[in-house]
Amino acid sequence: MSTGRGHPLRPLTTALAAVALAATGTLALHTAPAQAATCNGYVGLTFDDGPSGNTPALLGALKQNGLRATMFNEGRYAAAYPAQVKPQVAAGMWVGNHSYTHPHLTQLGQAQIDSEISRTQQAVAASGGGTPRLFRPPYGETNATVKAVEAKYGLTEILWNVDSQDWNGASTDAIVAAAGRLTNGQVILMHDWPANTVTAIPRIAQGLAARSLCAGMISPQTGRAVPPTAA
Ligand SMILES: [Zn+2]
């Protein structure tokens, strides 16, 4: 967890947005809430356990609301549904590694852990998702052996600051409220498959915009949400 790391807010001056505002004078009326003129901070939205048949609906909701997110894919699903991975990238998402079969890694030996991670790196890359730089261990369970294998593959371990509980039957209201607790740099755990999660997306976008927070990428260097880098 990275909750303990202090990181001052960085007010970002958005020259282009200021120009647009001056030019039109009606930016607020014509700009979707998710496309706030100013980002006073960034949060990392993450969706685990895909890709699946639900992925297109999730990507559609994210795109429609101007949100980018990190998708922690399982290797077995990337291999089974390779056609679902490229659309994640095309929609502006970042693709991470969430193991191949979602085991309790801390109960496995190093060779098995290595297999889980390396096969997923290959499956994601083979399906057009690029080579992941972020790894989320299933159930958030990690230990020194897991960390050693992550390091071997150049992966940064990403847990979360806020658990939406969407995996545990959380209501749409509860998921939206969880996202409302995010502060600059923090990461929220959500999943590819719960229907309530997709339903929550527009309200999550509105809530972030109201707080001048933007959806960012998760830095492989710090594990925190940061402004998306070009391309
Ligand atoms: Zn998972």
From TrEMBL:
InterPro entries: Glyco_hydro/deAcase_b/a-brl, NODB_dom, Polysacc_deacetylase_ArnD. Residues 1-36 form the signal peptide. Keywords: Hydrolase, Metal-binding, Signal. It comes from the Bacteria. The keyword Nucleotide-binding does not apply. The keyword Transmembrane does not apply. Pfam families: Polysacc_deac_1 (PF01522). Residues 41-216 form the NodB homology domain. This is Polysaccharide deacetylase family protein. It comes from Streptomyces coacervatus.
